[in-house]
Design goal:
The structure is a homopentamer. Chain A contains ten helices and five strands; from the N terminus they run E-H-H-E-E-E-E-H-H-H-H-H-H-H-H. Chain A is an alpha+beta fold. The first copy, chain A, is 59% helix and 12% strand. The radius of gyration of chain A is 35 Å and the shape is rod-shaped. The longest helix of chain A is centred in the last third of the chain and has 66 residues. The first copy, chain A, has two domains: 224 residues, Beta Polymerase, domain 2 (2-Layer Sandwich), CATH 3.30.460.20; 61 residues, Methane Monooxygenase Hydroxylase, Chain G, domain 1 (Up-down Bundle). The interface between A and B is large, with 42 and 52 residues.
């Protein structure tokens, strides 16, 4: 059966039920955790890993139990926030210990399932419960992936409209988040296929199918992350190319204006000289003829620019 | 024998023929699929995978059957369109179940073969039929590869003619499609060589030769995709270099015009000054001499530019 | 013994000699090839591969024979041309079948060797003959490598002299050819070390030494190709840097001319104004003093540019 | 028991205690080290490795002992300095020899532990002591990682404020340090999983758990280094993009000023010409009308620039 | 014992001593080498490899002997030159054959060792001698690495001082030399760990330790080469960035000069117009006021440029 109770004495917990699930929230009291470790005969290194908030994600096989350390991402729709929490799970033959710093909504669905009389969770072993926990965590990764996808999508739209240099900053920031997320997910992939998992008695053939499914989901998550990296790299290229295009356009305007007016200005300068002997100055139609010549120069230039696609 | 019939009761399907092929079109009714799963004793995860339209392609070995999930691309010449459909195949010792959302033309040829009395398909086991299905799907990949090839070819021709910034957008889009296609094909490669396939009794030595052929075709498809990536990256480089060349040309025109006329304008400015004591102003041949000097400057400049290949 | 003869009946070919070599030129008649396949008990997929002109190169082990598909490059010095031909070789215990579309000069040397009474080829098994064929094909790859090397060398010399944008096109073209050549050679490397080759009775320990040598040559070819890729990438970088340098030089000329003459022109403009009260205009030495000031400005600028290495 | 004593005769050291730890500081006297090697029956290559200050980090299994060579980084908070020292450890069944050039504070904590009567270190074998040493060294890596992280963080802040070209130099320098640190850490990773470690009798199953933990920490360090590389590469991109942006801005200012004033200057030049027959010159409102036209041109230009986001 | 003698008859060499070392200098006489091959029962392919001056480096196991082909780099301090020579070594159970085209100083130290009565080389098997040869060759690689390091160091210093485009050429050349050196060293790494080496009776457990040491040195050489590649790539980036910086600076000077003087020139042009009705022209203080306005414009501009860090 499944009953929730407040723990007072750790020592007589382990024997009580067929499968005991101890969920520890709050890792501040190092003493209590160590006591728990002693009670369940856990290796000192396991306790150390559990207490280290920057522990690398891993599945690790010990003689009598398996340690799972994963990063758990919980999305809170109210304030549109994703919170990262480290979740450690220790799976023994007839017990399961889960430890985290803050209470999250990860176990909500599992608790509901357990409350039902005829749920699978109640009739299967501890390994199935561990699978359900890890599965929930991995499913949460998809929410993060989706959020990242939305963010990329928005940034892409922004990129088309304007390419101010802040976008590059956001792209670099996004890249870093993708890399960081990748680092937290990738170490878990393929672990269950290693020989010390396959040979472990805690992994029955029956449950192995489920773990394979988890690995499959991890692969999908990692595939998506890899795709995001490629997309973001493409976006950086597009940004740099846009900046270049813009510069190109600026240069062309400068060149068109300059090359049209510089020769004209020369001509005006020519007839602004104060030489006493310049026959053109006294000729009656000099001015309109010069204006005509200038018009001709302008037209020629414009035709040339048109031909070179500068306008 | 091979007969098409409308299914009413799933339960008495499995026993009827030596090899039973059930083709399910439309995955909307989750209930029916689950009922089918119960009938054929399929693992709940298999049913889940089949119902998940975003399932990653895979070949997965279970105790009594093999699950194939692939993406099926169908080209419709009428409206020049490629439609993507997820196809799941469950291969058992004496049955085969294929599931997809929409009816495609993938099985047309297989149906024709089955209709013939003396076709190989009729006299071989379920595994041969599965091979033929997957083979058809992989053959369809070649159509996609060809379409991508044509698109690249067209873009290349466009790239030579003009290099407006829209082409970069199209190149990035193309790159993304290639990456996405790669993601749907690559997970399948080499799978059949893994040990759990080789040791499976559903994979007779006789059929293994055929699966090896499928893997060979997948390799060719992936080779082509890799080549496309290299080509498209080269095209992006070419585009950026064209843009650069264009800018270079613009700069050169600006420089040529400026460096010729700026010194000339200085000279006209010089003799446009209003100093009372400027001996040159009163000299009779000043004007033609200055024009000669200006002509000399122009010629010198042009020779210099010619030597530096700026013209 | 070794005798050439015109084939009329395929069926009684196989029994005639200890080792039978059938060389098929021209794959147009699909019927005949299939008949040959039936005679030698070849798998339908083998016949399919042989008839597919775009087959990926591979060595493939079947129960009673091995299929080799390679791309054969023949250099014809007369018209300085390299022709690509697909060559399929089927090696059985006492027969060898070679198939190609067009007659090439690949087998010329083998034929000469066979014509000699005491040549090794006559006294060794079919596997040695197959080795000699593949070895000749791989040796031809070195010719292609050399040609590519020459082409790269020429392009490099061109690159030093001028860097017009056509060179970039040629570099991209060269890159693509290198990639394409790599794709045709790389799938063969290391194949002979795979377990199904080592365990095959057609690969005696004695011949294995020879196949290892072929693999060694393939490695050398692939090493060279890899080096070519690195070199061509370096050339693209050099080209882009040259273009940049050129632009830099253009900009410097523009800047030098502009920054010298723009202040001078301002001064001429200043004394070209028509104000009635400008004391300098009436002063007798204004003009020579101004010319001196201008000369000073020019000298100062030139010294500054010299110091900044812009001249 | 654990007692510190001054060594006079090496020869009778080995037999004295159950587990003998010899800590050699200063490798100047090659003779003494060789004598030690002879005493403990060490392979000449081991002595050579120990004496080579540029030895690559490695774990190496010999018949009767294991050689560990690692780079030990010690942070001295007083002068904010990180010193690198090579530490060699030779682990035998009942002895452990540690060798370094300079005394560091790496063993301080171990010495304190040994001094306590009931510490684990006293009651476990030599392999546990070796683990504690390597573990301390690896823990020191985290200090280096943190220092690198701080340095990167500072550089990032600097990068936002100004992007002078010295920052690029610092980034390249940082990149090199990261690469160099990576080179000293990476060769150790995964070594303990190799077969000759697992089969070694010096590695009891009990201690293996500890070594796995060390490997886990190494993985974390390498993960961080990899992340640093990605970040620094992103910073170089940001720097180059900033430089580009700056150039862009400079070009825009030039273009705006030039394109506004060049046409205006042309107009002033036009009416500065000295033709005798120019009707506008004598018209009374020519000057204010011209001023108005010029104002109109300026306004039009500004509107155009605004629309193109150049202002 | 060790005696040097002039060889006249190859045939009775092999039986004479316990371990026979034949050192062949000069590979011109193909006949002699083949005779040697026949005498020692070498495979024709071995003779072919030895005679091919462009043979890829390799360690290759045959039934009764092992073939080593390496590139031997000798540094001649006199003319500061590095010469590359191919060295082939054939190691049999009781003989060792070394072949090279030119006499090098690689064996000088080995010869000296052999001359000593009580040297290890005299009392160990042929495999130890082979190890010493290969070890000497690998030690020579460190000399090349050092030379490359010095060259890179010099180039780096040059890069800081000036960044003319010749440096890019030298960098590309250096890159190519590094790649080429990498190609000659890398194929040897890890070879001794392959199964056919470990199972070979010519590789006693005793000597294996030495070969592992050689592999360790190769790893160090390859590590260094990899680091050199990273450094040179960083240098290319620095060069390109310097060029960019320079261009930027040029552009800024142009912009500063242009934006200051273009508006001033406009003003001078304005008052250089010849309109009859321009009230400012007759006003007494027009000229000093205009000069004041111009000074104000210059000051404003300079302040703006200062604020934007363009000066």
């Amino acid at each position: 059966g499944y009953e929730e109770e407040k723990i007072t004495e750790i020592s007589n917990l382990a024997q009580k039920n067929k499968v005991t699930w101890i969920n520890v929230v709050g890792l501040g009291s190092e003493e209590k955790i160590k006591e728990l470790g002693t009670e369940f005969d856990l290796h000192p290194l396991v306790v150390e890993d559990v207490l280290n908030p920057a522990q690398r994600p891993k599945f690790e096989v010990y003689d009598d139990y398996i340690l799972f350390v994963v990063k758990d991402f919980n999305y809170y729709p109210k304030n549109q926030e994703i919170k990262k929490e480290q979740l450690s799970i220790i799976l023994g033959p007839d017990f399961i210990i889960s430890l985290q710093e803050q209470r999250t909504n990860t176990f909500d669905f599992i608790n509901k399932s357990l409350a039902k009389e005829n749920s699978q969770l109640r009739h299967r072993g501890a390994d199935y419960l561990a699978y359900r926990m890890i599965d929930t965590v991995v499913d949460n990764y998809f929410v993060v992936v989706e959020e990242l996808g939305n963010f990329i999508f928005n940034l892409e739209e922004q990129l088309i409209e304007d390419s101010s240099s802040e976008i590059l900053g956001e792209l670099q920031q996004l890249k870093r988040e993708i890399i960081s997320f990748h680092r937290l997910v990738s170490p878990l992939r393929g672990l269950i296929y290693s020989s010390n998992f396959k040979d472990n008695q805690l992994f029955t053939d029956e449950t192995f199918v489920y773990w394979r499914d988890v690995d499959d989901h991890l692969s999908t998550v990692l595939d998506k992350i890899q795709m995001f990296r490629d997309i973001v790299n493409g976006m950086v290229d597009t940004y740099l190319s846009n900046v270049n295009d813009n510069m190109n356009q600026v240069m062309q305007v400068l060149t068109v204006i300059s090359t049209i007016f510089i020769p004209l200005s020369f001509l005006t300068g020519l007839y602004g000289m104060n030489f006493q002997y310049m026959p053109e100055l006294g000729y009656q139609y000099s001015y309109p003829i010069l204006l005509g010549v200038m018009g001709l120069i302008v037209v020629t230039m414009l035709v040339y620019f048109k031909k070179n696609n500068w306008l």
